[in-house]
Amino acid sequence: MLQVDSITKRFGGVVANSEVSFTVEEGQIVGLIGPNGAGKSTMFNMISSVFPPTTGTITFQGTRIEKLPAYQVAPLGISRTFQNLQVFKNMTVIENVMVGQHMQTKTNLFGMASLLLGITRKERKVYDQAMSYLAFFGLQDIFDQKASSLSLGKLRLLEFARAFATEPKLLLLDEIAAGLNHKETQEMSALINKVRDTGVTVLVVEHDMDLVMSICDKLVVLDQGVKIAEGTPKEIQENEAVITAYLGADIDEEEVEEEAI
Ligand SMILES: Nc1ncnc2c1ncn2[C@@H]1O[C@H](COP(=O)(O)OP(=O)(O)OP(=O)(O)O)[C@@H](O)[C@H]1O
């Protein structure tokens, strides 16, 4: 479904990604992991056309996308969430999801505005569809609450629901579990699996190792812009380079903390 081929991205003298290649097969959940500054967000931004790579190609279902603007990439079926949440705080929960549907339904903005004003037209079905998305994410009971009143956990679910409402083929989740407690993270894992079961392919950037190890079919590990490993969660957990670069760092930190206690 997605082929990232020899991608390099330079910001002046900083090489954020260097000759990175990997693939995402249809129906997979793939995790992009690595320590801080490894180049994960930069890779996500190139796949979702926030900016182009310096060199290399990105192919989505046979179409080269690395030089396309975001407005041309999204309709191909790529949607994403943002770590620093992009929900509209002064809109209600359902309005946020309806904005996500806008591109997919081709309802024009005037029609959407009419709906938001309570005018019943054929756009009613957009509303009903939005409610079904909210139910999928367990947000139906708070459909009319302002996004500004939501907890971080609910905001992350709303961000997820809005991206899902565009009916993507490939969904990029950028640290969707950041700041969530253990129970919320487990619920998020279950939801990501549920989304995949609807036929959506998922690429996640995530720091929560329990989450990625439990849900991902494959992991791609970056360190200082370079791909150092690719494989199943089990293979990655046993990979020496990964243990040194990433998991080892976590273990060391835990040991230091324990010693301090
Ligand atoms: N717009 C930019 N201009 C200059 N340097 C940048 C820019 N964006 C990222 N970088 C640099 O590129 C490198 C990779 O950053 P990136 O944010 O992709 O890493 P990351 O793996 O997502 O890190 P984190 O886990 O902390 O979010 C870092 O050295 C970062 O400082």
Could you characterize what this model shows?
This protein is of the alpha/beta class. The chain has a domain at 2-86 and 168-234: Rossmann fold, CATH 3.40.50.300. Helix content is 43%, strand content 23%. The chain has ten helices and ten strands. It has helices at residues 40-47, 70-77, 93-105, 109-116, 124-136, 152-164, 182-197, 209-215, 233-238, 240-260; strands at 2-11, 14-24, 29-33, 55-60, 63-64, 78-80, 170-174, 201-205, 218-223, 226-231. It has a six-stranded mixed sheet with strand order 6-7-8-3-9-10, with helices on both faces. Helix 7 (182-197) links the parallel strand 7 and strand 8. Helix 3 crosses helix 5 (124-136) and helix 3 packs parallel to helix 6 (152-164). The longest helix is centred in the last third of the chain and has 21 residues, at 240-260. It starts with a strand and ends with a helix. Residues 251-261 have low confidence and may be disordered. The protein binds adenosine-5'-triphosphate. Adenosine-5'-triphosphate (ATP) binds next to strand 2 and helix 1. GO terms for molecular function: ATP binding; ATP hydrolysis activity; L-isoleucine transmembrane transporter activity; L-phenylalanine transmembrane transporter activity; L-valine transmembrane transporter activity. Keywords: ATP-binding, Nucleotide-binding, Transport.
